[in-house]
Amino acid sequence: MIDVLDRVAALAVAYELGDVFAAAFGAPGYDDERADTSYFATEMLPKHSERDDFKLVAARRDGRVVGFAYGFTGQLGQWWPDRVSAAVGPELTAEWIGGHFEVVELAVHPDAQGQGIGFALMTELMRGVRNRRALLTTYADDRPAPRLYRRLGWQLLVADLGWGSALYGLDTGVPSGR
Ligand SMILES: CC(C)(COP(=O)(O)OP(=O)(O)OC[C@H]1O[C@@H](n2cnc3c(N)ncnc32)[C@H](O)[C@@H]1OP(=O)(O)O)[C@@H](O)C(=O)NCCC(=O)NCCS
Is the pLDDT assigned to residue 178 strictly greater than 70? Predict the structure, then answer.
């Protein structure tokens, strides 16, 4: 079961989401230094939940959150778009960056991976998005996440931005979006 959560609803389950975040990104082979429940619940999510068009989708099993994905409308002048823009140069920036829907995180608890939950979460996250362009960065090497994005039609824009991340874009087909 997948629920769509707005800012208030997402913050109400911030620690549950944080536990999934920490488990997924702290797993062997990921070892992400940000893989910490309270960092996610008290810093990362509250900050991002203030952004325009914030949307979070959460998958539950037996009432417990087992996965989530979220994003918002990103703009130049924010940290991530500016960092990506500096790496890709003016042509790709003009075409893709600013007013895009930015997929920030996707995580499924290791106990629940490999059952289609990640695919379902990304499908629900992007459903109804009205931005003409969507962007995300993911691992540059071959892993479940980039394979999943490609299956959903995301195109590889830059194979390695210079810090081990690849940039993917999606043309949502919304004709008069931002
Ligand atoms: C990336 C991630 C969210 C994917 O979540 P998931 O729920 O395992 O995703 P899915 O189940 O939809 O797909 C994963 C694999 O399981 C396979 N699968 C899905 N349902 C299946 C089923 N019923 N039986 C067998 N295999 C299945 C998919 O084909 C896919 O295979 P592939 O990796 O060889 O392409 C998860 O691996 C994760 O949290 N990773 C750590 C954090 C991360 O990388 N986040 C993304 C950062 S950009």
Answer: no
